[in-house]
TrEMBL record:
It comes from Ancylomarina longa. Residues 142-169 form a coiled coil. The chain crosses the membrane at residues 15-33, 45-67, 79-101. This is GHKL domain-containing protein. GO terms for molecular function: phosphorelay sensor kinase activity. The lineage of its organism: Bacteria, Pseudomonadati, Bacteroidota, Bacteroidia, Marinilabiliales.
Length: 351
């Protein structure tokens, strides 16, 4: 801890703050005693103590009673009325004491102009009340700001932890499905298995070395999607036609890794059924200056049959929804619809 941090921590101690506040005002008040006649010193000092004591009582009555009871509860008019009332009482008492006090410097002034004496006491009292109130409000504002900062940091830590959990779920879920597909493929066409394993190794390399970052370039993510589609195309080439279209040249955007792949994977897993002669899956990625759009179409009849047979609850889709809520709050559109036996998925990210 450096000197600056030690000093900051020292002045956050409550009694240090109060002592510092009163020390400054006491030095200003007692400055007039430097060249004073020693004969008047005792009376002047005694009366100064009465004034400062009365002001201290009023200041702490304001800080401990009036502000918590009225200001902090939103009763601002009542607070203003109460502080004016108690200031008037304090100033009246001090003015009466000053007017009847033994010979002191201010008494001569008071005898000549009582109203000026009241104004003088009002001015002194208001300086203490206003400065102490301002000090209190500034301190509370700083405290609130620190609490908000700590809350924001804690929320950010929780967000990162939740995102890491969600991202960690994507990898094994994706790998499980892909390995299962390769196993199925090897049972009836072992000649294609080596090529599929090679493509899988490329996908794993991406997940190990790129996906550990919070964001990856859109170009790399699209290349990952292409590799995945090539891998799946080998498996389903006899029963499905896969169409991938990418529109837009700007691929330098940064996006969270593996955000699109669960949606594309869902189309392959639930949109293809070997019982039917042929299936068609259309995948379109559109890139503009302000958004990235993903649109997927796959047969809905096959999807219903597969879902009914597997009782699948869509872990990948739920994962995507949670990540979108955390990463793109109010900056994304995610919809699914059914039209002419086509299951349509639309995802739009605002950049």
């Amino acid at each position: 801890m450096n000197f600056k941090e030690k000093l900051y921590n020292f002045f956050t101690i409550r009694w240090v703050q109060h002592l510092s506040f009163w020390s400054v005002f006491l030095l200003l008040e007692l400055g007039r005693f430097i060249d004073m006649d020693p004969k008047r010193f005792a009376n002047e000092l005694f009366f100064e103590g009465i004034q400062i004591g009365a002001v201290i009582l009023l200041v702490y009555f304001n800080l401990r009673v009036l502000i918590p009871k009225y200001w902090n509860t939103g009763n601002y008019l009542k607070y203003i009325f109460q502080i004016i009332k108690w200031e008037a009482i304090t100033i009246s008492i001090l003015s009466i004491i000053l007017y009847n006090f033994p010979e002191i410097e201010f008494r001569k002034f008071a005898m000549q102009s009582p109203w000026k004496m009241v104004i003088m006491n009002s001015f002194r009292t208001n300086i203490f009340i206003l400065s102490s109130s301002l000090f209190h409000f500034v301190k509370e504002w700083i405290k609130l700001k620190d609490e908000n900062l700590k809350f924001t940091e804690k929320a950010q830590e929780q967000l990162e932890a939740e995102l890491n959990v969600l991202k960690a779920q994507v990898n094994p879920h994706f790998l499980f499905n892909t390995l299962n597909n390769i196993y199925s493929m090897s049972l009836y066409d072992s000649a294609k298995t080596p090529d599929m394993i090679l493509k899988l190794s490329q996908l794993i390399s991406y997940m190990l070395y790129e996906c550990k970052d919070e964001e990856v370039s859109l170009e790399k993510e699209i290349q990952f999607i292409k590799n995945y589609i090539e891998l799946e195309s080998v498996r389903v080439e006899d029963v499905a036609q896969i169409n991938l279209q990418i529109d837009g040249e700007n691929q330098e955007y940064q996006i969270p890794p593996l955000l699109f792949i669960p949606l594309i994977e869902n189309a392959f897993k639930h949109g293809i059924n070997s019982v039917h002669d042929s299936s068609e899956i259309n995948i379109q990625i559109s890139i503009s200056d302000s958004s990235i759009n993903l649109d997927i179409e796959n047969p809905y009849e096959q999807m219903k049959e597969v879902e009914a047979a597997t009782n699948h609850k869509g872990l990948g889709i739920q994962n995507v929804k949670k990540r979108l809520e955390l990463l793109y709050p109010k900056r994304h559109i995610f919809t699914t619809s059914i039209d002419n036996n086509l299951y349509k998925t639309h995802l739009s990210l605002s950049l």
